Amino acid sequence: MDNKHALLSPSSSQRWLNCPPSARIGEHIEDTTSVFAEEGTDAHTLSEYKINKALGLVVENPKANLKYYDEAMDDHTDGYAIYILEQYEMAKSKNKDALILTEQKLDISKFVPNCKGTGDCIILDDKTLHIIDFKYGQGVLVSSENNTQMMLYALGALEMFSNLYEIDQVLMTVYQPRLSNISTRTIETTELLNWAENYLKPQALLAHEGKGEFQSGEHCRFCKVKATCRKRAEDNLELAKYDFRSPSLLNNNEIGEILKKAEELVAWASDIKEYAFSLLNRGEKLEGFKLVRGRSNRKYIDDEAVAKIVKNAGYDPYDNKILGITAMTSLLGKNQFQELLGSLIHKPLGAPTLVPESDKRPAITINDFNDMEEK
What we know:
Layout: H1 13-18, H2 22-25, H3 35-54, H4 71-94, E1 99-107, E2 116-124, E3 128-134, H5 148-161, E4 169-176, E5 181-188, H6 189-209, H7 230-237, H8 252-281, H9 303-312, H10 325-332, H11 334-341, E6 364-368, E7 371-374
Parallel strand pairs: 3-4
Antiparallel strand pairs: 1-2, 2-3, 4-5, 6-7
């Protein structure tokens, strides 16, 4: 995994490449972690163990020390290990001496000052380098297209092996099991190196020196100053130029432009609210706002005692109902669930949802709300 304290890390590259001064402006703000990050670390540890064990290495089973281990993580890491081994076998079919490395430390400082990273899996045959990144998160779909984190990993691997292999092309794959997402991009080595020389290195130098122009966008999501950034505020407040007129007074192009900005506007407002809460929560003042107690629900102090008393009174205290599909799958296991209940499962069409054109799902035409046809 990347060094969390690195100024210009591969994992934050989308942000500092698009907004170079953001690197230095957030440099001294403390890093934070989350349950999701810790869960991802456990999944990486488990997947590395499974791959190395399958390769015949003597490794210690880490399950007992994993805080977030469960059956779902076991299944997802099994799938990832199988995928990796399949890719390795494909590479060996081209070159019996193909190389595979897991959790490989990479030095990217030739292109980005003091930049290092860790490649989840690297597979090499004579001409092809395959970088595979295991993403256990399920909040955001991660694509391999224009994925600067993976491009930096690829550059680090090319630098490591350039004296041993003549690599013509690079494959970059995101494996994200909880969103059923396997995304692969293929790029010629010359194109990747050209990007590194003509775009990456100049932008990285600006970021390292704290120079360049502030730029807001999707990359603000994980920025440490996303709530207080003036540039982001100015860009989001541009929506006010429409004076929030009735949509019927706007043409289709204007509607489209507003929709493109609306999601970022909502995210920005949420970040502002979260930041304001943190200010008040630590005792600071915020003109016009205060913290109050929210609504709460009554709870039993002791469920067993309640059940016993209600039973003695002649009533059934339990609401018995069939388990939901997720809970039932956990109870039976995926294979037995499919064997016993597969014919009784139905997945209806999802409701129409408005998304950007860049979304990979196929568009639908709606004749009426009861008849939807994919096109």
